[in-house]
Amino acid sequence: DKNELYSIGPHFWNVRGHFKILKLIDIETQMSIIQLRNGKFLVIDTVEMNDRLRQEIDHLTNNGENIEAVIGTHPFHTLSFPAFYQTYPKASYYGTPRHLRRLTEIPWKGDLNDCNVRKQWEPDIEMRIPAGAEFVNPQPESTNHFVSVFIYHPTSRTLHVDDTIMYAEKPGFLLKLFG
Fold first, then answer.
1. pTM to 2 decimal places
2. What CATH number should be reported for the domain holding residue 38?
3. 10-residue block means of pLDDT along the chain (179 residues)?
4. Would strands 20-21 and 150-153 be described as parallel, antiparallel, or unpaired?
């Protein structure tokens, strides 16, 4: 099911969400939640939340009080951040340079282009920007979406990659045809 927390490994949860192109083709999106050694949580990317998902996140994070940070890893995944921020405004928000430029209503605490920001949660997680990626200002914006920060969680041996590399468990006809 979509918009539901799934335990992927120790201290790592993932949510598959809907993202429809032209309101017809669901190419999906995702969000992950990682519990750090200090007991706090990192939210990696965001999805549109329904009431059930918000309740699951609230239960896991003590109504959001234990969300240490929300991290936007993909410059073009921006649509669900404002609503997530409205729900969890106490968390610190970190994003790509494009997040910081486009979503000015969110008081971003840091830019993932800064290696010190990416190293902030080591050794709990490791963040990398693929070499050669147009990360700061991907051009042309309309088609160059091949970039995101990769996040590796050693405890669960899980790599969070937001659609730079894509896996679909049950691809639909159109994804099989064009994917």
1. 0.84
2. 3.60.15.10
3. 86 80 67 97 93 96 98 80 96 93 95 95 94 71 71 93 61 56
4. unpaired
